[in-house]
Amino acid sequence: MMPERLPVELLLKNLKFRPSMLFLDGSFVQYVAFISGFSVSSQAAEVAFLDGFDEWMAAHAGSGYNVTWPTLVLRSIWPDWNGSESDWSKLDSSSDQHAVQMLFELIANFKGIDPGALGLANDKAS
After folding, report:
1. C-alpha span between 122 and 67 (Å, rounded)
2. Chain-wide mean pLDDT for the chain?
3. Of 68, 61, 72, 122, which is closest to residue 99 (Cα–Cα)?
4. Looking at per-residue confidence, does 18 or 100 come out higher?
5. Of 1, 41, 74, 94, which sits most exposed with the smallest number of CB within 10 A?
6. What is the pLDDT of residue 56?
7. How far is 108 from 56, CA to CA, in rounded Å?
8. Is 125 within 8 Å of 94 (Cβ atoms)?
9. For residues 112 and 109, what is the distance between their CA atoms, to the nearest angstrom?
10. Is the confidence at residue 101, as pLDDT, over 90?
11. How far apart are CA 12 and CA 92, in angstroms?
């Protein structure tokens, strides 16, 4: 018997609005770590959560085919972003919240989900 699959919308809502449920602090760094790990495990279970997201992000950004998707998320906010992974944790609180918001909007768009349906439209960070 196949296990039931968690709807992506429910996963994203819980992940965004209940990070402590998954032992996350709600920071961009922790979301990237969780989403990356979840994506790898979903591939092993043959449930492609973010299969093709790297390429989609590179096309969305218009460049960066040799750059990781988290960096492309940050470049979608700050086009001149050249920071490394160690710089992600140095974002100030406001910038971190903005990066998290953009991350969830981009994943929703990639998955064909209206960000407003996830409650993200009313959760705009500065």
Report:
1. 30
2. 81
3. 72
4. 100
5. 1
6. 93
7. 12
8. yes
9. 5
10. yes
11. 23
